Amino acid sequence: MAAISPPTGYTMSDSISIWCECDVVSCSGLEKCMTTAKCYTALVTDVVQGTQQTSQRYGCVDDLMQEELTCNTEFDHKAVVKCCNDGDYCNRDLFPTFSPVTKDIAEDEYLTGLMISIFLPIIGLMLVGCVILLVMRRMHRKQMAMLSERDPRSFGHLISTPAGDSTLGEVFEHSVTSGSGAGLPLLVQRTVSRSISLVECIGKGRYGEVWKGLYQGEPVAVKIFSSRDEVSWQRETEIYNTVLLRHSNILGYIGSDMTSKNGCTQLWLITHYCEYGSLYDYLNNYTLDIQTALYFLISAANGLLHLHTAVFGTQGKVAIAHRDVKSKNILVKLQNTHGAPRKSNRAYVSHYVMEAEVKATEHIKADEYRPPYYDRVGHDPSFDEMKHVVAKEGHRPQMRNQWGENSTLMGVARLMKECWAANPMARHSMLRIKKTLLKIASHEEKMELDLEDFEVST
């Protein structure tokens, strides 16, 4: 066997490995051991079944510390140790004897050294464990502090019915969150990405990409954050898990997960998926009649009312302000298609379908679309331009002349103007808006809507 480097304090001759005699008790059944330190022989006194017996022990001293603590010492007539390193099995010729002179001092030193050699590693491990726990606790507090820094303006998307389960084409372009209930249990969420296969990218935004995926054979929307946007992902996940937030007019939440793709960490947020996309996309692809437009308005108001409503109790919900309601942040889930015929090859459409489309839109002429304030600001106005036009000059969007030709549209226009009041105290609450829309819809003869689905207590 090759020699081992000697411990500090040894001479060159000490670096040579030597064999030592061993006894069954000291060496766990072995008859010899090797060391670069010293061999020892110990005379040990034990009490066996009430009888005091003295026996000889042999073995190896492993290091300098053990040698200093044990060699040539006596422990209160219970043990005396002698050491040597002048050749293989040199401890066979050692015959230690008890000496009454220094037994108390030797025993104290032995016990102290023994306690140090036993408890020092244990204390070290405990200290390391405490440090790890403190670091983990600090990281947890930091994460919770970041989660608590909510920006109300970042709360994201509503769902309008007849508008299921919401397509997310441009849904995430300008917002961080979309709302809804508790989602899957945490342990399920942390493994949900393993069960999802990504199909195609359907949108990109500030925080990453949105993909259409398949989860247990059903389509889902997967918003993928990069690791540098972990705070946004955590905040959005927390909002999704808000108690009592689940609602038919708020985007359905499935779960959140962290995974690794191509060596990069990805943070996933999984929600319901719908092929029709945002209201902005929907209005660019389909024609609405008055009844369907009312349905959209009522269902959007229904979702906003749920956000605004505070629920008190042990499992309550705080009132939430959306602060970014626009067509790109309202998702469409169609429960029927009245008033919204799909695009098709007109040459093959039956005559009664064409007649139904004409009747649905004959009371309104489709004018060229013009955005609000088109005659006062450019196509892409700045915030300062809009502030000057709206806040300082007090202008409001112009209503189409055709709206005055229909009682339903007149009622909606009147409600819109009341919501534009310069004095915030004069504006309607969302509960009042919803009730007014329901009243307008109740007078619409062609309204194919079960208004009981939207009723509220007075």
UniProtKB/TrEMBL annotation:
One Pfam short name: TGF_beta_GS
Primary location group: membrane
Annotated InterPro entries: GS_dom, Kinase-like_dom_sf, Prot_kinase_dom, Protein_kinase_ATP_BS, Ser-Thr/Tyr_kinase_cat_dom, Ser/Thr_kinase_AS, Snake_toxin-like_sf, TGFB_receptor
Enzyme Commission identifier(s): 2.7.11.30
Domain GS, first and last residues per copy: 166-195
Cofactor(s) this protein cannot do without: Mg(2+); Mn(2+)
Membrane topology: Single-pass type I membrane protein
Keywords for this protein: ATP-binding, Kinase, Magnesium, Membrane, Metal-binding, Nucleotide-binding, Receptor, Serine/threonine-protein kinase, Signal, Transferase, Transmembrane, Transmembrane helix
All residue ranges annotated as the Protein kinase domain in the record: 196-458
Binding site for ATP: K223
Transmembrane segments: 110-136
Cellular location(s): Membrane
Sequence similarity: Belongs to the protein kinase superfamily. TKL Ser/Thr protein kinase family. TGFB receptor subfamily.
Official protein name in the record: receptor protein serine/threonine kinase
Annotated organism of origin: Priapulus caudatus
